[in-house]
Every structure is written in C-alpha cells, then in structure tokens.
Amino acid sequence: MAQSPPPFAPFEWMIAWRYLRARRAEGGVSTMTWISLIGITLAVFALIATLSVRSGFRAEFVDTILGANAHVTVYQIGEVSQTGQIDRSISDYKEMAARLAMVPGVTRVAPLVRGQVMAAYQGRNSGVEVFGIEAKDLVTLPRIADPETARGDIGNFGAGIALGSGVARTLGVGIGDKVRLISPDGVRTAFGTSPRVNAYEVTYIFSAGRYDIDRTRAYLPFAQAQEYFNREGVADELEVMVEEPENIEPLRRSLLQAAGERSQIWTWQDASGGFLRALEVEDNVMFIILSILVLIAAMNIVSGLIMLVKNKGRDIGILRTMGLSEGSVLRVFFICGAFTGVIGTFAGVVLGSLFAIYIDPIFSFVNVMMGGGVWDPSIRGIYALPAELHLKDVMSAIALSLGLSFVVTIFPARRAARMNPVEALRYE
C-alpha cells in the first residue's frame, strides 16, 4: 500500500509556485492579487504606525510629567489661623523631609514654596507660577536641567531666576535680562498689604518639552521665594521623587505614615490619571478599528483566490484524477493565498517600521508641504509627534495580519479541494 505524502510536501509548494507565476498572464487574477497585496501592506503599515505613535505619545507625555514634576506631592490640611485665614504651610518641613527620605523607594525629598505672580519686562506681562526650590534639588529634574534644550548655566541659578522658554518668549527676555515679579500679597504694613515688586536676573531658560509648563513656570531659589511670598521658616509642600514612579501605589501608605498627621499626598497619577485612562481607551478603540481594516484587506485575498480556483478548475480535475488528495489540493491553494498575506504583512512591517524610525523628517516634510502649523503645541501639549517602535507592537500586528490572512484563505481553498474532478473536467 502506497504511503501518503506528508503535509506541505515539496510538490505542493512547486504546484503553488507555478500557479503564482502563471497568474501574471491572467489579468483579472493578477489585478485582484495586487489589490490584496497593496491592501494588506497599507493596513499593516497603518496599524504599526498607529501603535508606534501611540506608544511614543504616552512615553513622551509621561516623561515630561516625571521629568519636570514631583512624583508625589506631600501637603498639609489647612488650619484656620487667628486671622481667619486657612494656613496650609509646613513649619517642620525639614523634619518631615528627613522622615520621608527614609521610606524605602524614595530617592529625593525637596521642600517647595509656590505662588502665582505677574512677570513683567519692558511693557510685556505674563502670568507665571513660581516654584521656590533649592539649587541642588533643581538640578535633579531631568527635563529642567537638560543642557541640550536649555540656555544659560543652571549653576548660576542661585543668583537669579529660571524661566520656562515660553515665558521668556512671551516677555522677550534672554540671559542677563532682569524681569520684575509682581505679587498682590506683598509687604504687610499698618495700612494693609501692598503689592511686592522685585527684580530678578534671568540666569537660566529651560524647555521641559511641555507647552503648558514652559509657558507658565519659573523657579526661584528657595530662600528668596520664602522671603518674596512671606513664607519665612515654612514650606508650602514637599516634592518627593521615587525609584519606580509607574508603581507608586505600594508607597502611598508608607508615605502617609512618614508624613504624619494632617498630611495628604497627591501623586502624578492622581493628577494625570484621567488623561492616561482616556489614552488607554482611545488606544483600544483604534486597535479594534485598524484590526477591522486589516480584516477587510485580507478579505480581498478571498476574491483573488476564488478567481484562481475558477481559472484552474481543469487543472484541479487533472490533479485529482492523477491521485492528489483533497488535503493536497487544499494546501496548494492555501499556499497561494497565504503567500499574498505573508508578502503584504512583511512589506507593511517594513514601511511601518521605517515610518516610526524616520517620523521626524517625515513630519517635517508634511509640515512644510502644508505650509506649517500642522502640529499646535498649545493643543497637543508636546512640541512634536513622537513615535516608539516596540517589538510587542510589531509582533501583534504580524500575528493579527497573518492570522486573518490564513483564516480567510482556508474557505476558497476548501472549495477547490471539494471540487468534483469529473464535473471540473466536464465544465472545462
């Protein structure tokens, strides 16, 4: 008794390859094949490009937050003072900072003084939020102390003020210029409180990579900020940095215990959690939509394969009468259909990867062609369209495309396998 050949034997690949080569001479089949190939390529390209931009946008957004802001902010519940005002200042901030620094996972604790003032220079005004911070703590903020995006020397911070690039651009100031800070809550006299106006030399201009930060933020040395905002001997809050900001929840209880009574904490996830959750929902929806796009592109394979089966009906009948089994015929046409899916997926992966790698020159070209203004940082928050290519995103796109391509190919291949050889020869 003759032994059946193993699945995907060499002759099956040979027959499929001959059919694929022969399709060039048949206009209809060739056209459908090219349409299927281009459709899958574009669908996989769009999927990888979207996934890379999604990953890059989230990474850039989180990096700008963690690189220029506290991972955890510790503050106190307000108490009503004798004058009837709510006092939230921290008088024992040095002792509290020492206790917080001893919590496992904490890398740095810095006292802050915060206040909103008006910055003025030669008739130009801009509302800014001033952070009073020690120079040794300021240099530990990666987005603020980045020399590639900053102007001036951060080492001279103690002699003046550090401004965001957006504030400097609005005021028209540069290194060495003096800006005036105007606070309505200034000098306390017998006749009330008069506005305080102090001039500070601009010693450092930073760019945090976030439009809202660069447009509104300024830094003063801690002691000068205490004097300016009438915070002598106290701090408004404590800035806490941790080793793993993405996994900050396990530290919440330990930080509260170390901070003591009347203390509360506010993490960066609390501040930006709503936006991050919205990003996650949007990512899931986009993946579903693009998956449907890949499915539609893969369905074109069915049309091309059905036409191939119809044109090769006589060949199917001859192969069956020569002894080819239904399984062999099925695998031959499965190889024909899957070939389009594999080539289209590979081409889409290459194009999508190149898009993610060279997104900056591509985006610059698009911006020039559109006359500029394509990306508005005041709306988007960040200055450029980021992209990060991750292996898991590429593998998920490959798995989705190949999986759908293989599944839809099975149905016309089964139709070819179940074709009656007698009827196929009679029809021809």
Short description:
The protein has helices spanning 10-22, 27-68, 93-101, 135-138, 165-171, 211-216, 222-228, 252-259, 268-311, 313-321, 326-357, 359-369, 377-380, 391-417, 421-427, and strands at 72-76, 79-80, 86-87, 106-121, 124-133, 151-152, 161-164, 178-189, 192-206, 217-221, 237-242, 263-267. With 428 residues, the protein is of the alpha+beta class. Helix 2 (27-68) packs antiparallel against helix 9 and helix 2 crosses helix 11 (326-357).
Attribute tags:
12 strands, two-stranded antiparallel sheet, alpha+beta, elongated, 54% helix, six-stranded mixed barrel, 428 residues
Overview of the structural elements:
- By secondary structure, the protein is α+β, with helices and mostly antiparallel strands.
- Helix content is 54%, strand content 20%.
- The protein has 15 helices and 12 strands.
- It has helices at residues 10-22, 27-68, 93-101, 135-138, 165-171, 211-216, 222-228, 252-259, 268-311, 313-321, 326-357, 359-369, 377-380, 391-417, 421-427, and strands at residues 72-76, 79-80, 86-87, 106-121, 124-133, 151-152, 161-164, 178-189, 192-206, 217-221, 237-242, 263-267.
- The protein has a 6-stranded mixed barrel with strand order 4-5-10-7-9-8.
- α2 (27-68) packs antiparallel against α9, α2 crosses α11 (326-357) and α9 packs parallel to α14 (391-417).
- The longest helix has 44 residues, at 268-311.
